[in-house]
Each structure stands twice: as structure tokens, then as C-alpha cells.
Amino acid sequence: MIFPSFHLLPKIERVAIDNDSVIFLTHFYGRWTVPDWLNLAAESFWPMLHAGLTFTIPLTLIAFVLGLSLGFLVALARLYGPKPLQYFVRFYVWLFRGTPLLVQLFLIFYALPSVGITISAFPAAVIGFTLNIGAYSSEIIRATIKSVPVSQWEAAHSIGMSWRQALVRIILPQAARIAVPPLSNTFISLVKDTSLASVITVPEMFLAAQRIAAVTYQPLILYIEAALIYLFFSTILSAAQNKLEKHFSRETVTGD
Questions:
Q1: What is the CATH classification number for the domain harbouring 225?
Q2: Considering only CA atoms, which of 40, 49, 15 is closest in space to residue 222?
Q3: Alpha carbon distances (Å) from 153 to 124, 157, 171
Q4: 10-residue block means of pLDDT along the chain (256 residues)?
Q5: Cβ neighbours of residue 60 under 8 Å, at least 6 residues apart?
Q6: How many domains does the chain have?
Q7: In contact, 23 and 44? CB cutoff 8 Å
Q8: pTM of the model
């Protein structure tokens, strides 16, 4: 039995995490007692989950949508843009794929104020993750578009389609099916990478765990609990990815 019977006498201790967050650690005394580690895990679960739902998940969704849009434009620029634009986007991809995401976040949040550009924590995290995801997703999208046989372009042009019509109606639907698995993996990785936003003071789930650990002196329990919540989110997304891949596989087989 995890929680004690109602007849046990509780002692509630108020613990401040920061100016806005408070948890209450409940210590029960009586014949049966709850282990301190389990009590701490139960009391800290909601503050961490709340941080995950209000910061981690929104940050992931916003950064992925913006990064995917940026990656699509960069991929088109690399494939079909004029030479100067191709050189520019190649440099962008080289720069953001070749430097650590943590360093990019530090430059945006901590270094830019030295030149008069100050960005608050959450927008800085969105910008950093968007630029990083844009670089990686552009390579995925570029590769999937190139994987579509040239004969598909020729067939589209033979029935009078313009370049834009062929791209939108013929090429991109086929490329999207190929791109789903790697882009889904990128999205799942982004959920875990958002923990890096804690270093620029975004109050996401891992920072919540750090703040609770700072006042309870129980980092092992709290970091394991945070890892399990991340694992829970990743498991749900992996299941959704599998269903999406099966859906596209059925469409490919049936020719729909």
C-alpha cells in the first residue's frame, strides 16, 4: 500500500522551489509509514509534469513546426535556388550541424546581450531549437526529394504540369512518405533535447527537477523521476510514429 491509512498523523512541511513554485512534503507518523523517497517522488511528480506540459511540450511543438518549415525552405533553396542562395544555405547548414546545440543556446541567450541584443529565455530557446532543427531537417527533406525518381518529374511534365504543380502534386507526396520516419525520430529527440533549455533558465521539466533537488538534497530520486517522465513522453510519441508509418505503408501498398 503506497499511501497510509487516514488515521495516521501527517506532518506537512512547506518547501519553496522558487518564487512561484512550492511543494509540500508530507511526513506520516504511525504504525505504517511511507518511505521518504516515495513520498518525495509523489509530491514532486505534479510540479515536474506541470513544467513538462506548460514548457517542454509547447517548446517542442513550436520549435519543430518552425524548424520543419525552415528546413523545407532551405532544402528547396539548396536544390533549386540560385547559386548565391545555395552557398548561403549550405553555410547555414554546415554551421548549425557542426556546432553543439548547447553552445548555440548560450550564444543566443548569454552572448547576444553583449552586442545590445537581449532575448528572454523562452524565445531564445525557440530560436535556438528552430535554427538547429531547420539545419537537420533540411538535409532529410532534401534527401527524400532527391530520392524520388526523375521519371516522376518527366511524367508530370508530359501531362502538362508546371514545375510547381509537379512538385506539389507528384514529388512532395512521395517524398513525405519517405521522410516520416527520420523526421519523427528528430521530433522525439527534440523532446529530450529541450532539457538543455534549463541552462538558459527556461522553467521546463528538468529545471523543475533541479530546483526541487536543490532544496530537498535528493538528486538521485528526482532525476530518475524526470528521466521516467521523459521516457513516458518518448514512448507515446514512438507509438504514434509507428502508427503513422503503418498508415503510409498501407497507402503505398494499396496505391492510394
A1: 1.10.3720.10
A2: 40
A3: 40, 6, 7
A4: 41 52 52 76 90 93 96 95 95 96 96 95 96 96 93 90 91 90 92 94 92 91 93 91 78 53
A5: 187, 190, 191, 194
A6: 1
A7: yes
A8: 0.82
